Amino acid sequence: MDKLDIKIIRELYQGQPVSLLRQGPRESFRAMGKKLGVSDGTVRERVGRLTRSGLFKGGPLQVNSDLLGLNMGVLSIDVESSTPKKELVEKLSLIDGVFLVQTHVGSLVGIMFYYEDDNSLERRVRLISKVAAARSAKFTRMPFPKSSVSLED
Question: How far apart are CA 68 and CA 126, in angstroms?
């Protein structure tokens, strides 16, 4: 593993949340390559090699929230480094709509959640920030591609 591999890993996990899901692999590799000053082929090859090495086990499957009439987003928060992460994950997991809490080395925590509208988004962001005693928070919407599938009641 070299410096470029580390930059790619950081971009995958700290760049645009779940960028591969949002844009599709081709656009994500192109954008990442441009940002890192290498070709999309180089990024694709490096990610493939890291996956084959066992470092990555593949991405999680996610339901297209548009089909459920919901929106999805990620809130990246910065918490005190002394915050007990295990307890924080347990508390955040109890919040309605939260389905993934991802802790990182240091003080960064990522929370993926569903929300109905702008009002419920605002309430969840405030609640998550308060429960976590977040020093700062950055929200990113996660749009899904339109689907030809429709669900029945």
Answer: 24
